[in-house]
Amino acid sequence: MLRVHQGRASKAGLAPGSVVYTGEVEVETVTIELFRYDEGQLTEHQVSGLEQALALREPGQISWYNITGLHETELIQAFGEAFGLHPLVREDIASVGQRPKVELFEAHLFIVLRMLSLTEDGSPQSEQLSLVLGPDYVLTFQERPGDVFAPVRERLRRGKGRMRKLGADYLAYALIDVIVDSYFSVLEHYGDTLEELEEEILREPTPHSLERVNRLRRELLFLRKSIWPLRELMGTLQREESPVVSAVVVTFLRDAYDHSIQVIDTVETFREVLSGLHDFYLTSLSFKMNEVMKVLTIIATIFIPLGFLVGVYGMNFDVMPELHLRWGYPALWLFMVTLVAAMLVLFRRRRWL
After folding, report:
1. Could you tell me which residue, 327 or 189, shows the higher pLDDT?
2. Which of 73, 85, 151, 176 is an S-S bond match for 19, by CB 3.0 to 4.6 Å?
3. Which residues of 96-121 are buried (b: 16+ CB within 10 A; e: fewer)?
4. Are residues 210 and 338 in the same domain?
5. Is the CB of residue 67 less than 8 Å from the CB of residue 139?
6. Which residue has the higher pLDDT, 121 or 221?
């Protein structure tokens, strides 16, 4: 989850703009999904190659190409040349360890986001999504199959609302917005986990509880690094003017910006809660240790005078006044029991017990 992409070492010494895949996931077949639409109609295609993808473009219609699989760098290079992408953009698409960012060019925008999901064991995993926005097209590049774009596809198919009435910039906004909204599902899982962990620590803290706290701290740090740059990214999209982003869509981007701030605030809140749980665990552990030490101290205090008494009568001297008394032994036991009882009463009154 927190591993550094080792493939970056293979780029050492190469010229800027060299397209080298730095990830580890290689799908069996790179797939190209095309949605081509206008207000009146929509067509979907599974494209087998770049030539077919370009042949299916129609003037006056919006084209959304979703490419799954980045290890075939020749295809990324070909798409970049066909759509006039800057060489550094092509390089960043294949370099999957990119920080979320936005870069503005004269004819297109390049945006890098992180798609977050949970594995079967509840751990977070992150996938880089590269998005290129042009005047009448959107390109999305993802490393492996599976994404969060099902709501966007369904809205395109229904053809209701603004989805097919506005341009490619609104489609790009919708894709960004659904990615940001998917973060809330991941954070909801962590909210439930934190509540469960808090009850566990309040009830009976164990070393397993501390292990869970430390694991969650690492995972939330991972989420923070994936989400925190969203603020800068969304702010840039709002502030900077671009010929491919209309004023209408800028208004919608403000709403996505608000969502990103909520996500960041939630992550920070969870980290503070987790830090509090860590401190509370240590406090509970210290309190339990103090309780144990108090009991042991009381036991030792009780046995100090008893040890003194039996020590005196164990010196084996012949001349001792009490040795030949008929009731000496029972009297000693009575005195010791009375002494213990008196000490317990004293401890009780002073609230040491």
Report:
1. 189
2. 73
3. bebebebebbeebbbbbbbbbeeeee
4. no
5. yes
6. 221
